[in-house]
């Protein structure tokens, strides 16, 4: 493996956290944020439209809201991941209900994996993440050097 196969992404102590929940999971995420607001207030929060609004209303924390999920909010959060503006995501998707924007949901989960973003899809995982030693420290993620991968593929085609 060559040194430049991977690039390091440095993350500061204050994390950029994306919060997303389907309707059947809204109560869970709002209650969880309320329970953890003393920790969350030290970080930058964003979320899909309705989730962000409900969390903000309950906890008083500032949560930057994007569009509602079915109207493109998942895609906006995905774009923020690509731009390096999300450090981890809590996405409580509902395993018991079909979503009209299922392709967007899949795309968001996919791009989060591509960029090695820690994702909590349930509250137990969210608890583990919030209590991780990395929450109070800097952290360095290693992501694949896509520029190099693409360059290598183009070279092979020549
Ligand atoms: O649909 C969502 C995630 O896929 C969430 O969107 P809202 O937070 O706007 O309900």
From TrEMBL:
Annotated GO molecular function terms are: methylglyoxal synthase activity
Q: Which reaction does it catalyse?
A: dihydroxyacetone phosphate = methylglyoxal + phosphate
Q: Tell me where in this chain the MGS-like domain is found.
A: 9-158
Under Pfam families, the record lists: MGS
Q: Which domain of life is it from?
A: Bacteria
Task: Please cite one Gene Ontology biological process associated with this protein.
Answer: methylglyoxal biosynthetic process
Q: Which GO terms describe its cellular component?
A: cytosol
Q: Which E.C. number(s) belong to this protein?
A: 4.2.3.3
In this chain, substrate is annotated as bound at 22, 26, 48-51, 68-69, 101
Its keywords, alphabetically, are: Lyase
Q: Which residues form the active site?
A: 74 (proton donor/acceptor)
PANTHER family listed in its UniProt record: METHYLGLYOXAL SYNTHASE
Please give the function described in this protein's UniProt entry: Catalyzes the formation of methylglyoxal from dihydroxyacetone phosphate.
Entry's family note: Belongs to the methylglyoxal synthase family.
Q: Know the name of this protein? A: Methylglyoxal synthase
Q: What is the protein's species of origin?
A: Muricomes intestini
